Fold this sequence. Notes:
Domain NADP-dependent oxidoreductase: 15-291
Number of strands: 12
Largest sheet: 8 strands, parallel
Pfam family, one: Aldo_ket_red
Organism: Mesonia aestuariivivens
Protein name: Aldo/keto reductase
Bound molecules: adenosine-2'-5'-diphosphate
Structural class: alpha/beta
Order of helices and strands: EEEHEHEHEEEHEHEHEHHEHHHH
Amino acid sequence: MRTLKFKDGDQMPAVGLGTWKSEPKMVENAVEHALNNGYRHIDCAAIYGNENEVGNAFKKVFDGGKVKREDVWVTSKLWNNSHKKEDVIPALKQTLKDLQLDYLDLYLIHWPVAFSPDVKFPEKDEEFLSLDEVPLSETWEAMLEAKKQGLVKHVGVSNFSATKLEQLRKETTYMPEMNQVELHPYLQQNNLLQYCSEHGVNVTAYSPLGSGDRTEDMKADDEPILLKNDVIEKIAKKHNASPAQILIKWAELRGTAVIPKSTNEGRIEQNLQSVGYELDKEDMKQISELDKHYRYVKGDAQFVTKGNSYENIFDE
Length: 316
Ligand code: A2P
């Protein structure tokens, strides 16, 4: 499988297992099945509410001895209520405890949005902290300290626009090593990819299959269903693959990492098998024409109040 390279020589397997929306009671088996069937990259986050169960799977598999901790790339993310510099390392230590690990391969600032420390999901304006109160550079410096202490090997961000990356570049001494963002044929974000490539920032594609299992309040009534797109279905048929496999292969061929979520054993296996397919120039051209800048994960449902708009999360 293709890997993403980091400056110190570390390599992250391009295809990983996503765990957002994976029910706690399902995720343990999903991670165990994935690791026992060739996955070497698991993507987690504190706010997914299932790191305990993911940790149980890690313990079982690593204790079993067939897969070694150092052969698996584990990513997790700092939630928005721990952005103050004194809160970052305690939040990271909780994640390490839940995951039953002594280091992470990659730790990301989950969103460029800060909440009061005791608020998981704000309901009122007062429950947000503005970026003047807790600048992203403050959170970022604490992430760098976590790296210095050896708690994480690499640090990065998620849901950052090129504008916010550029701000960090100017205000701090060290560029994020990763930006994890929503990416799929309906939201190709070529300019952001170009910026990241120019500045040595690796990119991970989340919601690569369109995240059809989001809760109803996160879905627009008229949203397009990526896995049922005619062009994707036609290309899938041509290669004797599934639409999901085409979407995963497309992400991999663009040079990004990609983290399809599944808790179904067959689909977990199928998604990793996507690396064995090839797409030709014509397939890539047809998929490139599907871009319509459509976000499934708008952020607004969770984060938008007067002081915090869709525009200033994504800078668009
Ligand atoms: P399930 O967990 O039952 O397999 P995303 O990664 O974009 O967030 O998408 C996750 C959604 O896609 C989940 O509903 C997941 O369901 C579904 N899914 C994962 N793999 C496949 C696949 N190979 N074919 C169809 N649906 C899939």
